[in-house]
């Protein structure tokens, strides 16, 4: 079972440019990837489905390749999502404890109350993350169990998606005869994959630059506290090149990868690039342009993306919490000069992120483009661990109906 409590785990990252599937197992407390499959995305735009049959075919191909490599049959997957207009909201709830010792049951009751208090219309909550506790108004408490107080408060970070997007994506995966074990926000998964513990504690911004969208998340005090998606990504850079130089999208992507740079240099004027024109079959008809023209198309679009991230981060109020550190991941972040341009626009120290919590990845899949898929596996392990704790602390339900009523009175009065 792909998502069974003791079996291997499966992660599926459905993006705008590629569909990626990782199958992994736990070995001595570490994750080892045993199967990898990735396919060019079809029927998808900006992480949303535009053609159900083509998207289904791409998912089937990626999962089938991972299954063959791992020698396992995938039945459930943890699904990464970067579309559906995710909304990030912090909810504060306070409950009376009556001066008693705070127990696991009090904690679960407060968590349940916080989840129930946030019911956005037409949306589904995919993450409800406790980001801080208070006891009698005292903040900065990470674990209140064992403490005494009159009131217990909790701050929950809620991430929700549009119902229609979730249904379409889940339906597409289910048409491939796969179950959805959980949906995970792409920047959250990327953060779990490439951040070290100190970064999560001190404050950091994870920027996931994909093909159809750029998503970012703020981590502080060990947990994600803010999350947002901007519907502009590396694919828009390729479109700009194709339109500006009158070439095909395939040639634009190739030129971006081979000759592109986010920063201009004095040598750009001297280097000449051949640009095959749309509709021309003869190579001699190619347009010859200096590299500076290519850089002049790439740089403004990337600056626009990064300025949007900066402005949204400032408007959210989490810019100070995020500190002066940022981590870049995603396929579009691999373009030369992006790290330096990001540091300049955001005024932060920037490093490139890559999967650090999984073993068994080949060199081709060990870079920034695969942090989301690797992070989904880390999330799956965390979920499995949390389920084990809940099962261990859960008490057996009383058989007697009167005992059930008595327990209800104890919990509520």
Summarize the structure.
With 413 residues, this protein is of the alpha/beta class. It has helices at residues 52-70, 104-117, 163-174, 186-194, 197-202, 234-245, 249-259, 291-316, 319-322, 338-346, 371-393, 401-412; strands at residues 9-14, 18-27, 30-40, 44-45, 48-49, 76-81, 87-96, 123-135, 138-141, 151-162, 179-185, 204-209, 214-220, 223-230, 272-275, 287-290, 325-329, 349-352, 358-359.
Q: What report would you give on this structure?
A:
Pfam families: FtsA, SHS2_FTSA. It is found in: Cell membrane. The chain is α/β, with parallel strands linked by helices. It folds into 3 domains: 1-86 and 161-195 and 356-413, ATPase, nucleotide binding domain (Nucleotidyltransferase, domain 5); 87-160, Dna Ligase, domain 1 (2-Layer Sandwich), CATH 3.30.1490; 234-300, ATPase, nucleotide binding domain (Nucleotidyltransferase, domain 5, 2-Layer Sandwich). It contains 12 helices and 19 strands. The strands form 5 sheets. Strands 11-6-1-2-3-19 form a 6-stranded mixed β-sheet, sandwiched between helices. The chain has a 5-stranded mixed β-sheet with strand order 14-13-12-17-18, with helices on both faces. A hairpin with a 3-residue loop joins strand 1 and strand 2 (18-27). Helix 4 (186-194) packs across helix 11. It is globular, with a radius of gyration of 24 Å.
Report the span from N to C terminus: 43 Å
Structural class: alpha/beta
CATH C-level category of the largest domain: Alpha Beta
CATH architecture heading of the largest domain = 2-Layer Sandwich
Major β-sheet profile: 6 strands, mixed
CATH fold descriptor of the largest domain: Nucleotidyltransferase, domain 5
User: How large is the radius of gyration?
Assistant: 24 Å
* Total number of helices: 12
Unreliable runs? 1-5, 388-399, 401-406
- The number of distinct β-strands equals 19
Strands of the biggest beta sheet: in what spatial order?
A: 11-6-1-2-3-19
Mean pLDDT: 86
At the fourth level of CATH, the homologous superfamily of the largest domain is ATPase, nucleotide binding domain
Domain SHS2: 9-194
Main location: membrane
Organism: Sneathiella chungangensis
GO cellular component, one term: cytoplasmic side of plasma membrane
């Amino acid at each position: 079972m792909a998502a069974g409590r003791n079996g291997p785990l499966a992660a599926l990252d459905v993006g705008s440019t590629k569909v990626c599937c990782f199958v992994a197992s736990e070995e001595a407390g570490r994750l080892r990837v045993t199967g990898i499959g990735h396919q060019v995305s079809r029927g998808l735009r900006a992480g949303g489905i535009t053609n159900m049959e083509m998207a289904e075919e791409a998912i089937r191909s990626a999962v089938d390749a991972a299954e063959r490599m791992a020698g396992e049959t995938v039945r459930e997957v943890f699904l990464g999502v970067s579309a559906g207009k995710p909304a990030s909201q912090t909810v504060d709830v306070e409950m009376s404890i009556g001066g008693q010792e705070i127990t696991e049951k009090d904690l679960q009751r407060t968590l349940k109350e916080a989840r129930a208090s946030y019911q956005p219309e037409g949306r589904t909550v995919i993450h409800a993350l406790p980001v801080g506790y208070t006891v009698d108004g005292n903040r900065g408490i990470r674990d209140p169990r064992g403490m005494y107080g009159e009131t217990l408060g909790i701050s929950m970070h809620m991430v929700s998606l549009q119902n229609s997007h979730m249904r379409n994506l889940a339906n597409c995966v289910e048409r491939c005869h796969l179950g959805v074990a959980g949906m995970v926000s792409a920047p959250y998964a990327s953060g779990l994959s490439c951040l070290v513990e100190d970064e999560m504690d001190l404050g950091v911004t994870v920027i996931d630059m994909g093909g159809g969208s750029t998503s970012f998340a703020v981590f502080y005090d060990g947990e994600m506290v803010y999350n947002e998606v901007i519907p502009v990504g590396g694919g828009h850079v390729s479109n700009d090149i194709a339109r500006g130089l009158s070439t095909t999208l395939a040639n634009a992507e190739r030129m971006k990868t081979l000759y592109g740079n986010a920063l201009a240099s004095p040598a750009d004027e001297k280097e000449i690039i051949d640009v095959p024109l749309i509709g021309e079959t003869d190579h001699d008809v190619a347009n010859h342009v200096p590299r500076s023209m290519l850089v002049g198309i790439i740089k403004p679009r990337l600056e626009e993306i990064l300025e949007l991230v900066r402005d949204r981060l400032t408007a959210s109020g989490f810019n100070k919490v995020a500190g002066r550190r940022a981590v870049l991941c995603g396929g579009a972040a691999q373009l030369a000069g992006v790290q330096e341009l990001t540091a300049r626009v955001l005024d932060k120290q920037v490093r490139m992120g890559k999967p650090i919590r999984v073993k068994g990845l080949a060199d081709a899949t060990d870079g920034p483009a695969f942090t989301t898929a690797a992070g989904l596996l880390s999330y799956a392990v965390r979920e499995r661990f949390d389920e084990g704790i809940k099962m261990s602390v859960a008490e057996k339900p009383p058989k007697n109906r009167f005992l059930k009523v008595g327990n209800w009175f104890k919990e509520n009065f």
